[in-house]
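Task 17 of the worksheet. Students: predict the tertiary structure of the chain below and write it out as structure tokens. Keep your answer in the requested format; marks are given for formatting as well as content.
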Amino acid sequence: MKKMSLVGGLLALIVLLLSISCEKMGDPVTVSQFQVNKNVTMSSESQGLLNRRTFYNFETIFLTFADLYAEEQVDIQIIRVSDLKMIKRLLVFSDGYGAIRNLPIWYHIGYHGPCSFEDMSEKYVVHLLQPGVDRPWVIYSIPFEIHKGIPPTPQIRVVDAGGCFIPGSLHPGEQLLIEGSRLPQNQNVQLLVVANRISYVPGDVLTDLSDNGIETVSIGANGTLAPTVIWNSVAAGPYDLIVDTEPFGIYNAGDVVNDALLTGLVVQNAPIYGDIIQDIACDQFGNYKMYFDSLETVYAKVNAFTKPRLASEYVSIFLTPHKPVWQAGDSLVALCTVGTFEMPINCLWNGTAGSLPLISTHGQSAPDDPTPVKLWPGLYDVIIDVDRDYVYTPGIDILDGGPVPGFIVAGNPPPVRFGASADIDFLGLKDDNHNMWGVFRDVTHTPVWGVLVDSLGNFVRNNKIKFEIVSGPGFFNRDSSFTNYDGAGFSIFAGGRWGQGTLVKLSTVVNGITYVKYVRIFRKIPYSHNQGIVIGG
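Model answer:
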């Protein structure tokens, strides 16, 4: 009877949260102190990034949000209102200003494969959550709808010879066709294939890269473009597709770009079973680079020249100590910052094309932050864990590294880097039969782990790590563990309660020096499961 009351109370809380249009909740177990938030934008490129709450087939939804705690993990969920099922989930970081910007939260609505489409017309809620560390929890719910039909504003789509939508992926030598809707009416336009860029401004020169010249077509009163060949034999690389209006040859407000914030087309080689080595680490403008200062933020962006063997919707991004040779099954460890954020981010990408838009990979400090997020000196690789199994898989995962590092942080690495984490429930999005969204593997038991890496990036093995409860409810199944082959030691936390965070301490001694990490574990809503965040050490 008590269990039924608990579930009923939880559902009532979810319903209340979902019924509120973009609200902030003062604490994690009551719904008493709300304030309306104005600093949120949901948009799609086909609507010129205008703020709206209605979306259509094949669009990609972007989220910008500016009322979060700075430099902390943000849990973003899309919940279907009709059955309260979580159908998508991301774990990313806010920047030093407490914002996330133009984050894709739903790719190509309804697309499931060539000529395979699912009608997603429904009411949904974007649910954002940041648990406060000795601060109020930040919880927002943002309602939106998906409607049938095509967007009421200009759109270009890559299609196959039969007119079926393809989300921007071809192999070298294939033919490129595009179609369009809501295009400028009763005008002559030019169809261009240009080098990919992350933004366009009026006056940018547009250079066509196709092998058959520039097509000039007449758009009639209905604003449609029938499937049209614009490249006979495509070449490897990332591109954008543009319907260019007069004056031709330069970008202007009347031009239509497919997926301006994303990559419109990736032409890539067929899947392989060897390493997919690709530049990933970059700056905030998408410029790939090798050297970073300890105070810089490492961004990730990739358009895979080789198609991964798995078309995953989600990826995990690891900044991990460099290894000259990665073997199948090698463990992946997110370990690059001093004191916090030693976890991968989990985000969406265009999995059919192996294309990841620009995204921050860890907390980003504001210029005036008195305690900024710092990178440990050392050599690192960036790995896109496509199958999200926390191990390296050649031909599926994408590696920024190889014999040389993916990036380097100047300075002398410390003798030991000690990392910690307590959130591994992201993979619990489906049940064991892989057919149900919104199911977590275990709602009450949380593995808490520490990992040790030396100055050369090698795991420190057979070293004792202690686990202690500092404050709050709960207990560990063992008070110590020795690090294994992957430098990790584990203990299982249980006994947490709603509304009561538990502070746990991990400590270890290496060569006479004591290293300490603290993790806050909390019971999370609207879903009853544990999660942990590292809060320094």
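Marker's comment: Residues 2-19 form the longest helix (18 residues). Helices lie at 2-19.
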